[in-house]
Amino acid sequence: MTSLRALGIDLGSTTAKIVGVDAGGEIAWHCLEPAAPRPEEQVERLLALALVAAADASGLPLVATGYGRHLVHVAQRKVTEITCHARGIFREVAHGGTLVDLGGQDSKVIVLGDRGEVIDFSMNDKCAAGTGRFLENTASRLGVPLEQMGPLSLASRDEVPISSTCTVFAESEVISLLARGVAIEAILCGLHRALVRRVVALIRAVGLTPPLMLSGGVAHNQAVRALLEEETGEPVTLPRQPELTGAYGAALIALDMAAAPAHAP
């Protein structure tokens, strides 16, 4: 059995992540699943898995974050993704900088101070063009596996500009390009460029404080990382498990709660 002391759950729009940390704040167990249509039932299932992993997770503090955090009714606290991602990345890198979190539903840029405090942030939650959903939709339209989008984009010698900044219009533009016989690789390169430039606009809104870091599942996309470095001129640092950063930060906050002395009645 795993020695868990606290749990963090990140209920996102495309995936659900739960992390258990040990007494030292290290990730001791985790589980990641596609987001289910019934979030409350998924939370129950994830907590049941934690119960098996920890022998007894019923008394462990739980902090929820993510798009659906308010649906995690058993959580002792519900904390924003900005706070949790900042906490998770700082625990791993132990310095300030600029963190880009590319989620399925939104994208965020968070500026951290030397002690891990959030100094400023900008967020795109109104348009999917700068999020993972943008890539998922176009992957489906092009018939390309999501994990192959980055390598195919980087392998292209050509790049076709995608002028539309709206996902719906960009999809129509892709259909038109395909009808004209444009190579899929060139389209993918243009799509990645369009996404990254939306993110860079968010970075410029708050100012880039090096180093530049990347979290969220989209961080595994090689083309996003490469183009982000190209557009900003800064190398990109990844945490060990970027898709777990928010859940990890939530678990660390829960661990703080477990360590806090009880208040006298």
- Going by CATH, the architecture of the largest domain would be 2-Layer Sandwich
CATH topology of the largest domain: Nucleotidyltransferase, domain 5
Whole-number total of structural domains: 2
- Secondary-structure-based class equals alpha/beta
Fold blueprint:
Blueprint: E1 6-11, E2 15-21, E3 27-34, H1 39-54, E4 62-65, E5 77-78, H2 81-93, E6 97-102, E7 107-112, E8 118-124, H3 132-142, H4 149-155, H5 167-179, H6 184-206, E9 212-215, H7 222-232, E10 236-237, H8 245-259
Parallel strand pairs: 1-4, 4-5, 6-9, 9-10
Antiparallel strand pairs: 1-2, 2-3, 6-7, 7-8
Quick tags:
single chain; alpha/beta; Nucleotidyltransferase, domain 5; 10 strands
What features would you describe in this structure?
- The chain has 265 residues and is α/β, with parallel strands linked by helices.
- 41% of the residues lie in helices and 20% in strands.
- It folds into 2 domains: 1-78 and 243-265, 2-Layer Sandwich (Nucleotidyltransferase, domain 5); 95-234, ATPase, nucleotide binding domain (Nucleotidyltransferase, domain 5, 2-Layer Sandwich).
- The chain has 8 helices and 10 strands.
- The model has no long low-confidence stretch (mean pLDDT 89).
Brief summary of the model shown:
With 265 residues, the chain is of the alpha/beta class. It has helices at 39-54, 81-93, 132-142, 149-155, 167-179, 184-206, 222-232, 245-259; strands at residues 6-11, 15-21, 27-34, 62-65, 77-78, 97-102, 107-112, 118-124, 212-215, 236-237. Helix 3 (132-142) runs antiparallel to helix 6 (184-206), helix 4 packs across helix 6 and helix 4 (149-155) crosses helix 7 (222-232).
